[in-house]
């Protein structure tokens, strides 16, 4: 009998303790996915453009709209633990916003990531979708963590949002990776584009999309 490996595993050591008292209806979650998939501010087709920036931008908007949310992370096994396991697109890791959704008596976490799929995906299916070969490891973190620190990745040694990574978030939305050498050079010639992106983002924060039956 052939043994089939599951592509991705949930990492209990790195995940945050999540108490999802405030949950969404599946319909509201689907409407949010549709909104973000069609939002011109997000360059979902650019698979190498700062997933951290896109995920943080989605989460900041959800926070402004008072929608419960977290971040879902997935790491290739080699990058995280020096084991076998890698992600597609030669990514070391990937991150996206995730919503707590009530389904029957359970809370199911659905990921908003139009760069990976054309509809909502459960966190497991999303992580499996970006896994090139087993194993990857996925988990949930608080939305206000922007990125992990250098060195060994632990549960609590993550960078919170701050002034600098807020700039990186806006630069990423503008299509510029401000962390890279190329991106830093682009910043000199694209200041107006970044200012325009900041204005559009601020407008979205104050204009929550109309959702039907958002909370259970």
Automatic annotation (TrEMBL):
Protein origin, superkingdom: Bacteria
InterPro entries: Gln_deamidase_2
Segments forming domain Protein glutaminase: 39-129
UniProt-recorded name of the protein: Protein glutaminase domain-containing protein
């Amino acid at each position: 009998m052939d043994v089939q490996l599951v592509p991705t595993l949930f990492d209990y050591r790195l995940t945050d303790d999540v108490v999802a008292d405030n949950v969404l209806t599946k319909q509201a979650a689907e409407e949010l996915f549709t909104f973000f998939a069609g939002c011109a501010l997000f360059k979902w087709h650019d698979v190498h453009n700062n997933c951290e920036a896109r995920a943080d931008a989605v989460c900041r908007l959800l926070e402004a709209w008072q929608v419960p949310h977290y971040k879902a992370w997935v790491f290739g096994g080699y990058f995280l633990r020096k084991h076998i396991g890698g992600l597609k697109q030669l990514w070391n890791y990937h991150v996206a916003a995730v919503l707590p959704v009530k389904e029957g008596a359970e809370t199911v976490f659905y990921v908003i990531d139009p760069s990976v799929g054309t509809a909502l995906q459960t966190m497991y299916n999303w992580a499996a979708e970006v896994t090139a070969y087993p194993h990857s490891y996925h988990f949930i973190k608080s939305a206000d963590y922007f990125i992990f620190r250098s060195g060994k990745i632990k549960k609590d040694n993550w960078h919170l949002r701050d002034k600098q990574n807020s700039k990186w978030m806006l630069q990423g939305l503008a299509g510029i990776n401000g962390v890279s050498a190329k991106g830093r050079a682009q910043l000199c010639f694209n200041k107006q584009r970044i200012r325009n992106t900041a204005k559009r983002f601020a407008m979205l924060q104050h204009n929550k999309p109309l959702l039907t039956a958002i909370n259970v």
